[in-house]
Amino acid sequence: xxxxxxxxxxxxxxxxxxxxxxxxxxxxxxxxxxxxxxxxxxxxxxxxxxxxxxxxxxxxxxxxxxxxxxxxxxxxxxxxxxxxxxxxxxxxxxxxxxxxxxxxxxxxxxxxxxxxxxxxxxxxxxxxxxxxxxxxxxxxxxxxxxxxxxxxxxxxxxxxxxxxxxxxxxxx
Length: 172
Known about the structure:
Elements: H1 4-19, H2 26-33, H3 37-44, H4 47-70, H5 75-84, H6 94-106, H7 112-128, H8 134-155, H9 161-171
Helix pairs in contact: 1-2, 1-6, 4-5, 4-7, 5-7, 5-9, 7-8
Protein name: TetR family transcriptional regulator
Organism: Poritiphilus flavus
Domain HTH tetR-type: 2-62
C-alpha cells in the first residue's frame, strides 16, 4: 500500500508533468491525491519542497540509468549503451522524465551536472577509440541523445528508431 506522502509526491509529479509546475496549486494536488492541503505542507513544507523531493528522485534515477554505461569497460559498448538509453526507458516513466525536461524551461532547474558522468564516460570512450576531439564528440552525442529523448517523450520510440540505428552504425 502506498503511503499518503508517496501519493502526494506521485500526484504532484503527474500534475506538474501534464500541466506545468507553475500552473498547479497545492490545493489541486491535495484534491487529486485525496488528502488535506495541510498534509502536503506537513510532509513537504511547500510546493517548492515537493519539487525538491522530485529533483532528489531525478538524481537517483539518473545515477541508476547511467551506472551500467559508466561501469562498461568496452568503449564501443559504452557508446552503444548511451545511444540506446532513451529507448530503454519504460513508457510508464515518461511523465517523470517529461517533467524534468519541462522544468528546464519553467524553473532554474538544470541537469548539466547530472549529465557530466555520462559525458565523461563518452569522452573516455571516444579517446580510447582515437577520435580526434573526444570531449567534443561526447558533448555532441550527449546533445543528440537529449534531443532523441525529447522526441521519444513527445512522439514515442518509433519516431526515433531510424536515428538510433544510424547512430549505432556511425559509432559502430
